[in-house]
Structures are given as structure tokens and as C-alpha cells.
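Sample entry (230 residues):
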Amino acid sequence: MTFAALSLVVFIGHLNAQDSTQWKDLKYLGDQYNINGSISVEEVVDTTQMKFVVKSERFFIKKSQDFTYIGIRSNTSTILNTYLINEETIKVLHSSAALGQVNFVKENEIYKPTKTEFDWIYRDPLAWQEMHSKGVGSIQEFYHLFGWMATTWHSGSYREIEMLIENTLITNNTIIVISYTSKEGGISDIRFKMGKDDVSISNNALIDNQLHNGYIPLSINLNKKLLNQN
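Predicted structure, serialized as C-alpha cells:
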């Protein structure tokens, strides 16, 4: 296991998306960070509020006591998925033209989803004509419900996405995998990364790509190597 992957294992509490009072107030994020879809010099160079966990050409992950920050700097338009994985659950945090979350719960060695479709509680108003009937109007409101937020396609640069996760979403022995699209050697493809390592969620490219693109498969047979690296 690489140091970068090891550093992603953190020891914090339990998710309850209905109790917004448990999420750390965004005022504790620090003035250097503005989640707006354009990664600033200050967000990159800061080492006072947050420390680097992973730093590469296309993305970086930083962490403080309260928050985990993911910045994607692709060379093409992209979706961002973050997968919070432990022995019992897989939480998929999705950002594209909307924000959504689905949880998979382990049943007899297979992880099954708790719903069949994303709700898309926050929808980018420049991409959607119809808003969710019980939706929210900003990514900050989404954060107060779910403990994380991210920018969508019409925020900032089309090649950059920022995601902020409140650390109580990341339970004991959780690993973080991300997926994004980039063009390398003239070929555009979805990259799944744990630290700087290329990985697969399910050892099935079709299932992995469905997850990345905002679809919910009937089940996931988790790649056991992910947890073995923990």
C-alpha cells in the first residue's frame, strides 16, 4: 500500500444525512478555500489549513481535522465520483450536472444499493429545466443535508471540479477512491484512483463505468484488493 493510500484511512464518526446539525460549519474551512469550480493558487499552495494526502498532475486531495478536499484539474470535461469504501458499505458521491449520493450495503459478500436511482437533490440550474420537488438551491444547502458538496458542470472551469467532504462521513478504516475523466496520449478515458494507484471498484469495467456515469447497478462485487490494501 502506498503512503498516499494509507494516509486516506481516517478514524471518524457515522453518517446521518437527516441531522444537519452534526456537520462542521463551513466557516471553519478557512479563507483560502472557495468551492466554486475554479481551483485557485491559494487552494493549491496552502499547507496551513489543510495538508496534502495525494498530489498529482490531474488531482490532489487535502485533509484537515474537519474536512477532506478533492480538487480535479483535468484536461477535458469530467464527472467526479468519490467512493467511501469500508467492509460494510460503499458510499458513492457523484458530481456532474447534479449532485447525488447512493449507499451500497453488504449482503452475503455482495454490496446492494439502498435505492435504484439517484435523487439529484441539487441540480445545476443551467443544465436542468426541472428542479427536484424537494430539492435545494445551492451546493451549500446540499452540504447541510448530506455533509459534502461539490461543484457542477457550469461552475467555474469545465475541466475542474472541487469536492468538500466533512470528515464524519468517513468512518473507521474507510478508503477513498475517486474517478474522473482525462485525456492521456490522445485517449480520453475514466481513471479510477486510490492514492496515485490505478484501481477498479468491481473488477468489471462495465459496472465501474456505470457508477462513474451516474447509474446504479443492481449490485457490486467489490474488488477485495481495495480493502486488503487498507
